[in-house]
Amino acid sequence: MANTIIAVDSMTKLPDAIVGRVLVSGSHGGLYPAYLAAKSQVRGIILNDAGGGKDDAGFASLDYLQTLGIPAATCGHLSARIGDGEDMLMRGKISRVNRVAARVGCSVDQDVGQAAELMNSADWVEVEAPVYEESRFCLSMSDGGPIVWGIDSASLVRPEDEGQIIVTGSHGGLLGGDIAAAIRVPAAACAFNDAGVGADGVGITRLAALDTRGIAAVTVDCMSACIGDARSMWDSGEISYVNEKAKACGINPGQTLQTFAALMRQVIKKRSAGVVKI
Asked: What are residue 28's DSSP bridge partners?
């Protein structure tokens, strides 16, 4: 059988002719990337487990794709960088598999490349992906202050989000070293999931990148909130890391995202009044 394996950094940036291929994707193993995999009609997929995290959200793709008959597995977040499909393919180790993947020989502790080859031998099945629930919503409004928008994936950011506070379920890893990709608009502030930080500390690399753009940014501990779920982050996320811009605004590890938003609104109000220049 022809090799149909391809490595991608994100499920939101797929090449053409993806139908029937096996993907090794740097995306986290939560529900939204699983939905995109099913929608793309892949033969099989390996995602990053993002540290597993709260409610095992980093493994949620496995059961989702199991019900559709698609082989799926996760790569251990400490074995290879999240957001880097090539790195996962080269040095990643499998952390979990679903039953469909197990039937073609995939197993825990395998090399990701070996598991991908086994998925390549699986029969391709055409599926109809279930409709994904609303993934963009207002979390908080304030008179005269920025809106807090919740988006389950950073890919869902819009031009009108400029100057707003963005809480995204995406991991905090910088894709391809592209500073512009850290967040696609000049937001007032951003929050991400730290995905267990992972190999080479990649799960928090968006923070330093956003410092260079003057954007306050934080990550929440993956064990405190479900990756890929902005509502979970808002409801229970505990800040794990902050960039220098956020620190200057009084934001510190251990705080909630509600505190993060409140402090950012205070700073923005003072800046608008000319009281501070942060």
From this structure: 48
